[in-house]
Amino acid sequence: MVSSKIDSFTNINGEVVNDYGKFDSGVQFGTADIGEDDIRETSFILSQSNVDLTIESILGQDFAVRLTSVGQEDGSREDSLKIGGEAPIEADPAVDPDPVHIANDDFLFVFETEGFNRDGSGDALEGRMTSVLQNDTTDDLQYLGQVEGVNGDTTAVAQIVSGLSGGLLIMYADGSVDFSADGQFDYLGTDETAQTEFTYAIEGGDTATLFVTIWGEDDIIGG
Q: Which domain of life is it from (predicted)?
C-alpha cells in the first residue's frame, strides 16, 4: 500500500510527491512538529525476513526525507524541509583501494673512521641489504617505489644531510646509502659506540628511520 505520510504530522505531501509519487513505507525519528529534542544524526537498519537485502535491492528506488524543527543554530526552529531523490540505476563499479606502502627501520654499523665511498658505491646495511627499501612493503609485497624524501625534505634525496646526533649521509632514490662519520666521533674509545639516525619517506608518506651505530677504534700514536 503506497502512501505520502506516516501519520498526520509526518508526510511528504507537496512537491516531492508530485515529482516522485507516493512511497511504500516510512520511518520516523524524534518528536513531530516543533520539538525540543535535537537529533543531529541518526541511522536505522533496513531488513526483510525472507530476503537478504543488498545494495542492488534499492537501485532505482525513490527516497524522500522530511525534516521538522529546521533553523539556524540557536535561532528559530520553525521551518521544515522536504527533499527527495532517486538511487542510481546501476551500482558504482568496484574501485581498487589505494595501495598501502609501509616503510620499516634499517640499521647500519660503521667505524669512527668511516668516510664517503670514493667509487660512489653504497654501504652494506644489516642483513646484507644494499637499500633501505628492501624491507619496505606494498600491501605485504615488496615495495617497488623510490625514496621520496630524507629527514623530512623532499629535495634532500641524493644530497648530503646531517644526522640527528652527528655524521653525514647521502641517500639515493633507490635506497642505497653512503655514510661519513666526518670526524665527529673521533672521541670514541676502543669498542665504545655512539648512534645517530636519519629518516626517509616513501610513496604515500610513510616514514622509517635508518639507525647508524658507530664503533670506536684503537688510536694509532706515532713514535
A: Bacteria
